[in-house]
Amino acid sequence: MTPAAHTISRRRIRIGIDTGGTFTDVVALDEDTGDLITTKTPSTPSDPADGFMNGVAKVLGLMGCTGADVSAVVHGTTVATNQLLEDKIDRLGFITTEGYEFILEIARQAVPDGYGNSYFWVKPERIVPVDRVRTLGGRMDYQGNEVRPFDEAGARETARWFRDQGINTLGVCLLHAYANPAHEQRMRGILREEHPDAVVSISSEVLREYREYERSMTTLVDAAVKPRVARYVGGIKERLDGSVGGDEDRSRRIPFAIMKSNGGILSAEGVVHQPITTVLSGPAAGALGAALIGQTAGFNKILTCDGGGTSTDVSVVLDGEPTLTTEGTVGRFPSKIPMIDVVTVGAGGGSIAWISPEGTLKVGPRSAGADPGPLCYGKGGTEPTITDAHVLLGRIPPHLLGGEIPLDVAAARQGLSKLADDLGLTLEQCATGILEISAWNQANALRQITVKRGLDVRDFVMATFGGSGSLLLCRLIDILGLAGVIVPRDPGNVSAFGLLTVDVRCDYVQTAVCRHTELDHDRLADIFAELTARAAEALDKEDFARAEQRYARTADLRYFGQAFEVRVPVPDGPPDAALADAVAEAFHDAHRQLYGYDFRGDPSQTVEWVNLRVTGIGPIRRPALRELPEGDGDVSRALSGVRPVCFDAADGYVDATVYRRAALAPGDVVQGPTIIEEFGSTIPVHPGFTARIDAHGNVLVTRHEQKGA
Hints:
Number of domains: 5
Number of strands: 37
CATH class of the largest domain: Alpha Beta
Radius of gyration: 27 Å
Distance between the termini: 78 Å
Strand content: 25-35%
Number of helices: 16
CATH topology of the largest domain: Rossmann fold
């Protein structure tokens, strides 16, 4: 027998797994054939890693594969997000420059929801109370020059104090460390010597950008989530290698990457050192998946609406790219890192309907989650939810996941009846009222990312996905005046699909404040070169050859005297006067779009450069979205029945045709009232609306054209 006969033939399966509040979504790509397989499994809130491994085993079983065939796994995790949202922050210590011990207490003068809220707003507790803040002698100026030498003795005393107090998680943010990190690096070295058990984050590695409060908070958030993220990611990595490595080669290690908030991925080893980059891991993946699907379908302006069990996440996609921001927050914690601009509202399938002290109906943000879940889950839920309203009105079937999870309609009816009686409403008025409030909550979030950013919401097509994302699409078309809504195939798995479409991305920033008229182009070139070198080094560690690597440059500019900046792209090429002028022109254009005015040509107003940024990109092979064979136009092949559905309390129940989405083909058209059902999602098409199937199997829902309009 020749040696070749002993060669094991393996398939190459890349898996994307997104862990949500209710379900863990899984998509697997056969890299040799391009075939995609999707599935779901219930999430396990007590230990999300269990749901993760269940999902891997389930999708491999569907494909007839073993762990030996897995080439890579990419994961969207909510571990850091949930820790911050639930405010589960362990004891933290903070080390800062002498004289700045109250920087967290002072914070910013802004009051949430405007100054009309000043009488009612209570300042939240600081992430680190004053008694756990220690200051350090020594100081840099804003150009990185040492004004006072580093206090070596004081640093050792500080390290020993935290060690003796049993405080093992520390953030270090020294004044102007973005310009010169030498003092911070020395402080970390002393902590390693004097307090080796400490988990330490230093601001010059987390956020090399000015504004001391934001830099301090971002560094402390990074430190706060680092232990939990490290345990979670390390635990999954160990289980993957042990359970999925394959019997033939137990020494094999499966490449495991985590989705970052900026729309890229990073190896598990790298994420452990940058845990704050994962705070919007899951929502970012959904936005990217929807961006690729929408662009393939021919739409350049897309709103994404990701409806889950706990919340709904919305974002904007322009020309195939989700918009980014560095002004994000998670819970009460500002996190000034590059992240996809996602707005979250507590309007998911498990959001609870309740009566306020004033006697009015409210929906969310509290959620029944996956356990115990809505009343209709029959797992001990005690309060009615959005899902209960949908199942009562017939808009979703009395089961989920193709029958895997039966729903108890009687339990939903009982809970909603009590709520309706307390409100003095009929059962249908109560249920439709819950859904109407939820639709307006989502609409307000969509306006927040469009109208408030100078965009006309009516120019956009919305992509809905997630298990509950498509349930209110007809109302959102009417409320917002949308051009239409596209529902991808397997909408409940778009976030997991998005994990297979993203590149490796590394972001680097350097503050370099200078007026445009005084710009030193050589210094500009040097900073961009340094940032590019750091990005290249990071991509080298991710095993990307230099020839594969790409770099994107941006800059934050403002008018002199303004407090905040506008980010604009910096074209390739040497940063000479002509390129700098082009960037300034782009800033004028962006400022006008955002705020309705600019000072172009006004000699009294000077443009000021603030931050320079470089993003290193390691491209991956994206799955191809195939066109499907054209249908014959006869939709009866997909008809599965008729059931009474209530779309409006005033009209009561009407007979709605029910179609199996898997049997609908490109070119098919169905008219509302109808219900389109599939494994992980349901699309209610209201009276007056039309649903068309496009070449890729997406469902495009629009309002009927008005005659004479």
